[in-house]
Amino acid sequence: MIKDIHSGGTRSRRGSTRRLAAAASLAIAATAVLTGPAVAAPASSNANSASECSGRSIPASKISIQMFSYAGWTRSVGTEAVLAELSDIGYKNVEPFGGTYEGRTAEQFAELLGEYGLKAPTSHGSTNEAQFDATIAYAKTIGQKYMGSGGSASPGISTLENTLATADALNRLGERSKKAGTGKIFVHNHQGEFTTQFADPETGEIKSAWEILVENTDPRYVTFQLDVLWAADAGIDVVQLIEEHGDRIELLHVKDGLLNGDARAIPTDVGEGEIDWAPILDAAQGSVKYYVVERDGAPATREFAEDSFNFLTCYSF
User: Residue 238 has what pLDDT?
Assistant: First the structure.
């Protein structure tokens, strides 16, 4: 586990937090052993043994984890206990969302990150224009390099007019963020950004809302966080998309899963689903700055985070 360099009461509090996290993990793991998984995920043939990993694949400094993956675990043991586990695994970065902060001030959360050797270069937060100065101030204090949310900005993509208005809003927000020193704003996709499509009023060409946002936002201020699983679930050729728009995709949500026909994909640990990662990771080289692992509704143990981290840091492609 992590070495504790604190003294006095702080050491006791950290130890209690870690014991709580460990106890929670063991309890849930014991339950899993008794009940057994419904379907065993196949091991990836691309993952190397630990002894073969040195100097290969994605460096830990570029790997992050979306904390929403562990929303349930965090509610049980608290953010600090989960951060302790992630730091112990080897993570250097996390991507918080609203529930991660637990009411802490920016200064308090920055201190907490520092205690576990973690950074938060991105987060999923608010894009409310009226309150964006406060959002930027919080992000700047904790050291963010990008601003964004779990989607994009208002008014959304329900119509072509709204999609174009959203692009304008992103340009405004991105410019404010960039000038404040917190970097570009990003758009995170689900399936809808690709399955929602409109005809170009001038050419009649059918384009997805995602493409329209790309074409109508300023690359100086706006980038994209491509969620791989949801794009693939929408029928997108992810490799082709990265090759065509790689200069606009600086963040990757590394999400794996079992594609489920017309039904929603079933998320898995990275490397245990049906996503063919080799060509995706190859295409992403040189443009993607952070690889953010995520699994919606991950079990409340460190297994998902550990399996996914090991996969990325020990992968030949």
Answer: 98
